[in-house]
Amino acid sequence: MAKDDIVPGSDKFVSPSMTVGEKLNINKDPGTLLAEKRGQFLEIFHIPSGQSVKFKAYITDFQDKYETEWQSAPVYGRMDPIHQYQGTKRIITLDWEVPSMSIAEAKLNHQKMSLLFSMLYPTYDAIGTDGTSNATSISTSPIFRLKFANLIQDPTNGEEGGEVETSGLVGAISGFIYAPDFSDAGFIDGVKSNPSSLTRQTAYGTLYPKLSKLSLEYTVFHTFQLGWKGREKRTKEFPYGVDMSRTVAANEETASGNMQEIEEANQQAVTSG
Question: Are residues 74 and 152 in the same domain?
């Protein structure tokens, strides 16, 4: 996809249309600081289009479910049926909030969510090349890469600061739940009035939520080696980017270095005495 085709601002936290005051306020937001300075944000990458959407990490619920599937068959004379392993599924459920501190941020978030929901639909190609037919056919299903720090990542490409295009976890989104907060936060309508005239920042009758709540269910496609080879995991960093063998080795090396420093210090103290 050409760079000009990417929806502007969908992978940003500060909108170009914000005023200087709005930019100053949003840069004081803890969520913005954590996202830009420490990489704590949720990113959803739509593989067919190359579009990416980023949200600040206002995560309210995270569940990573691993479920093994077995097929059981009763056998005459046995108390327990025979169980045959079929596979293991991994499903991630994620809830997060999208707050808006100004009309410009509310518009930006509205744009992000509109783009995100559109990503659930397939990619179509025209049938025929003569241009006389309006018929289309589905060419690509809606497949994604999802990344949130080291908790949601491809462990084989999950290097620190890795891009979602290579380090995101491949899978499919079963659907979204979009829930604007009607009761407490309310909406920004974008209409301003002054004593002399009515000036509108946005279309009359348009509402932008001050707070939206989003939920998704993500079925992971395992695109890397899983399971065991003898006593070792086939992908040592699975699932959260931590290789325990390297961690233990690093800890042992650190402890050995500390002990050597202590012994040298003790030896120096004895010599000085």
Answer: yes
